[in-house]
Amino acid sequence: MARRAAPEVNAGSMADIAFLLLIFFLVTTTIETDSGISRKLPPPQDEEVPPPILKEKNIFVVELNKNNDLLVEETPMELKDLREAAIKFLDNGGGAGEDACNYCQGSKDPSSSDNPTKAVISLRNNRETNYETYIAVQNELVAAYTTLRNREAQRLFGKTFVQMEKELKDVNYTGNKESLKEDIKKIQFLFPEKLSEAEPKK
């Protein structure tokens, strides 16, 4: 009796189907990217350079403890008041002579910062500080710089600093991008973002 041949499954199109599925998943899948804090690290230095000497009045100390309590200049403060306090410090303009600030609109308190170019915000936190609180504090401090930059950009160029940065990134921008870059640098020079982060406390 002749043996019957077992029927074969036609797998010729399996490679095509697998390839089509692969393309489908590549096209439809969204890849999540972690958002972080935009910070520019200082360039590496070949030789040790001593840190610049800072007057204590030009340093604005912001601390976060392990209970997420905010201390500004050793005084308890609510997060909602931090931006205004930072603006008041940065825009004080209490310097005289070379340190004088002719564009500052602050109270010119001699016991506070001399000039925005000299002012440094020092952020210190505890290792047990909540990450969300830490980011919220960072946002408020950066927002203080942005507020002041917007004000100066509006005064000098008739548009906000945020608008200028958007125009620089816009591929359809018809103006002179080199001139726009220079204008942005001028505003950044008037209010440089000097945000110092100390080693977290244990």
From TrEMBL:
Keyword Cell membrane: yes
InterPro entries from the UniProt entry: ExbD
Any one biological process term the GO annotation gives: protein transport
Membrane-topology annotation of the record: Single-pass membrane protein; Single-pass type II membrane protein
Keywords of the record: Cell membrane, Membrane, Protein transport, Transmembrane, Transmembrane helix, Transport
A Pfam family recorded for this sequence: ExbD
GO cellular component: plasma membrane
Record flagged with keyword Nucleotidyltransferase: no
Gene Ontology molecular function terms on file: transmembrane transporter activity
Compartment(s): Cell membrane
Family: Belongs to the ExbD/TolR family.
Record protein name field: Biopolymer transport protein ExbD
Taxonomic classification: Bacteria, Pseudomonadati, Bacteroidota, Flavobacteriia, Flavobacteriales
